[in-house]
Write a structure and sequence with these properties.
Elements: H1 8-20, H2 34-49, E1 60-67, E2 74-80, E3 86-92, H3 99-104, E4 111-113, E5 126-128, H4 129-140, E6 142-143, E7 146-147, H5 148-157, E8 164-170, H6 172-184, E9 196-202, H7 210-218, E10 224-230, H8 258-268, E11 283-285, H9 301-312, H10 314-320, E12 331-336, E13 339-340, E14 345-351, E15 358-361, E16 364-365, E17 371-374, E18 377-381, E19 388-395, E20 398-399, E21 407-410, E22 417-422, E23 431-437, E24 444-447, E25 450-452, E26 456-459, E27 462-466, E28 479-486, E29 489-490, E30 498-500
Parallel strand pairs: 3-8, 8-9, 9-10, 10-11, 13-21
Antiparallel strand pairs: 1-2, 2-3, 4-5, 6-7, 12-14, 14-18, 15-16, 15-19, 17-18, 19-20, 19-21, 22-23, 23-27, 24-25, 24-28, 26-27, 28-29, 28-30
Helix pairs in contact: 1-10
Length: about 500
């Protein structure tokens, strides 16, 4: 039977537990083994479960956690430390910084029977091949010689009567939760009473077809069964209505341009002839689009995907539910100097540098003296290396993303970067001032693929140039990136270098 919606506090707790599963959800830093990464994940999850300021109120403890060999999937089991006799099975899906890559991970063009459920053997519901592979991987993962099912069985055997098991996940973790939760109900459990199960998903794409969705809703009993969706999150539209996002976003954008619509059409076509259905009615969030990233609202594919990533994030879902956000992982904002040789002293600046710091210069793990001055500053000495590498910091909460401001060039010359342009919109011939670092006197400027002639470096960090013609046209975006080519570098693209031409009628 379908469950009744529970209190908002229950969703806040479930989403917080799901968000914690993203702890250290980054590629392993250089020099770190699978076992070492798993140990770091366990430390990070355990740390966050004890934070009293979160919706979980420090009232949970880690029982078991495991990571797949390829870091594609992670799951953990926690139990409440109060008298509520609750357990939580928490799933983390595939790690990806790209929303479109994340959607492609499910291999939805092929479907397979999900025969693990209690259905007639000749009519099992179907799920995507990618979701089934992830489910099998999660069921096979082990830690300390125990699988998830074995760890849960041991925990339930020692529990008081009438335990509750919550199964939750965000994004692909939520998709997998809809498979794991009903499967767990097909099993026999030790102890004085059979547990009751609750299912909470957030931002989840669907795993299977209409029969699968129907089974999740009515094939087994639930103490709660809730599916939360940000109305402007692209991922939950998979694989039922992705094409509707071609009409996004309202109230200032970013509106979908020609390139964006082409990408959405390609993604929407991935299921081929297969029909998918979401398990149950969504509980909508952000219906008025009042929560958005105001820095990425231009009509371009770049801004559209950046807004989609923002709307899909753990922190946005927590805020929409009125729950405190999770402790942030490390972020590197800059290094000084950004060129040198092996042994050069380098100061790394950013945030979140406390708690088991490890540092990488590209593919090389730094093993020398590390001076952590505070949570925002680290001093190291560049390890042996060649070329231009990203400097990244890892703690028990994860690894900092690679950013243009934290590139180190062995032997120079220093990397080129655009930090802003003014004005950000205009016609062909409009004078544009480009700000940045490490420009040269002979620097070249490109608006998309068109070179702007007559560029003048007016001071070390400024170039003036007239916006060239021939950049936009039929089936071409009106918002383009401005890049600078200097001493062998092409500046990386980002929202700071976007220039918008008038749209064609």
């Amino acid at each position: 039977m379908a469950a009744q919606q529970s209190t908002p506090a229950a969703a806040q707790v479930a989403m917080t537990l799901a968000g914690i599963a993203a702890t250290a959800a980054t590629p392993r830093p250089s020099g770190e083994s699978v076992a070492e990464q798993c140990a770091r994940v366990i430390l990070g999850v355990s740390q966050q479960l004890t934070v009293p300021e979160l919706a979980t109120q420090g009232g949970w403890t880690l029982v078991w956690a495991a990571l797949s060999e390829d870091n594609a999937n992670m799951a953990y089991l926690a139990k409440s430390t109060d008298r509520t006799n609750r357990f939580a099975v928490v799933l983390r899906g595939t790690v990806s910084s790209s929303v479109t890559d994340l959607l492609e991970d499910l291999d939805v063009g092929t479907v397979v029977p999900f025969s693990a459920l209690r259905t007639p053997p000749d009519t099992p519901p179907y799920v995507s091949k990618g979701a089934m592979e992830a489910f099998c991987q999660i069921m096979a993962m082990s830690a300390q010689g125990l699988t998830l099912v074995q760890a849960l069985a041991g925990a339930l055997a020692a529990a008081p009567p009438d335990p509750t098991v919550l199964v939750t996940g965000h994004s692909l973790g939520g998709c997998l939760a809809t498979m794991v939760a009903p499967y767990l109900q097909t099993l026999s459990w030790p102890g004085s009473a059979t547990p009751v199960f609750g299912l909470y998903t957030f931002a989840a794409p669907t795993a299977g077809g209409p029969d699968f969705a129907e089974y999740v809703m009515t094939g087994v009993p639930w103490v709660a069964n809730e599916r939360y969706v940000n109305n402007y999150d692209l991922v939950p539209l998979a694989w039922t209505s992705i094409a509707t996002a071609k009409g996004w976003y309202p109230d200032g954008g970013p509106a979908a341009d020609f390139d964006t619509k082409a990408v959405l059409s390609a993604v929407a076509a991935l299921p081929g002839p297969n029909t998918y259905a979401q398990p149950g009615t969504a509980i909508p969030l952000n219906q008025d689009y009042g929560t958005k990233d105001g820095a990425v609202t231009r009509k371009s594919l770049q801004d559209f995907l950046a807004q989609a990533a923002y709307q899909h994030s753990n922190d946005v879902y927590l805020r929409l539910l009125g729950a405190p956000t999770l402790p942030a992982g490390p972020v590197v904002t800059g290094i000084s100097p950004n060129t040198g040789w092996s042994g050069s002293q380098v100061t790394i600046t950013g945030t979140g540098f406390s708690g088991g710091v490890a540092i990488d210069f590209g593919p090389v793990a730094y093993t020398g003296l590390t001076v952590i001055e505070d949570d925002t500053t680290i001093t190291v000495f560049a390890p042996p290396g060649v070329g231009v590498v990203d400097v990244r910091v890892t703690t028990r909460l994860g690894t900092s993303p690679a950013v243009p401001t934290a590139q180190f060039a062995y032997g120079g010359p220093p990397p080129v970067r655009v930090t802003g342009i003014s004005p950000t919109r205009g016609r062909s011939g409009t004078p544009v001032t480009i700000s940045g670092v490490n420009f040269t006197a002979d620097a070249k400027v490109f608006f998309s693929a068109v070179e702007a002639t007559g560029a003048q470096v007016t001071q070390p960090g400024t170039i003036t140039v007239d916006a060239p013609s021939g950049v936009t046209g039929v089936d071409k975006p009106s918002t383009v990136n401005v890049t600078v080519l200097a001493h062998g570098y092409s500046s990386p693209s980002g929202p700071a270098d976007e220039y918008t031409y008038p749209e064609l009628p």
